Amino acid sequence: MQMALGAARKTPALRFFLAVLALAAGLLVMTEAANATPPGGLASTTPEVEAPTEVGPPGKATLVNGRAIPPVNAPPAVKQVIAAANKIRTKPYIWGGGHARWNDRGYDCSGSVSFALHGGGFLSSPLPSGPMETWGSAGRGHWITVYANSGHAYAVIAGLRWDTAGNTSGTGPRWHKSTKAAASGAFIARHPAGY
Fold it and tell me: What distance, in Å, lies between the first and last C-alpha atoms of the chain?
């Protein structure tokens, strides 16, 4: 090692090579630390969600090219839920998607609802559809209602349905103007308290 360092002092090319090697090793260590999965299996504790800058008329969210625009009078947490959902609105349906990590290749029904709710601070970890039947407060909410049964979950957020069922083009989490369930079966309505 001493001999290599002595040679490096005399040879600029070797000095440059050693500097690049040290930089690459440092970047590799930083990348590994950033990609490490923490205990509990979730790769990220919070999905990166941009604060919504565009708002629509008061009352109900509007749908523009598949993207929901929150109403101007929506509470900040509801706007964050909409922003989170918009972030994954073009992802494919993948069974189990969104349960092992927040930022996933695709999402299933409850994974996409969990992602949206987490964006507004309503969930700390993803829930399967069955446990969503007892999440939050009973009944419909004013701004957010989660509809769940043992096999499917969807949400109505500011008057738009957030669902993986009933898509006309492709599969995966999408916004829909109709708030009526596209999937069959009985659903239990739940909502975050105060919303």
Answer: 65
